[in-house]
Amino acid sequence: MCVVAFAFSPIDLIPDFIPVLGYLDDVILIPLGITIALKMIPESVIREHEAAAEERMKSGKPKNWFVGSLILLVWIVAIIWMICLVYRH
Q1: Where is the DUF1232 domain (predicted)?
Q2: Of 61, 67, 75, 77, which sits most exposed with the smallest number of CB within 10 A?
């Protein structure tokens, strides 16, 4: 959770507006955090979930049409809203 929080946090160790160094902390710390998090997961749990994922993929890619439709609806509403904002002014 800490790695995800750091990745999405607007607060950085080195601000992004500093050339090269601003993005370097993200490029180094996020993969390092993911590696450490993966090493903390027990091997048996990883094997179990890899097997479950392979079994799911054999039966076809999982599809969730409801969520896909919901995401599409959100994009359509956002585009219509932005068009209305542009033409209102």
Answers
A1: 3-32
A2: 61
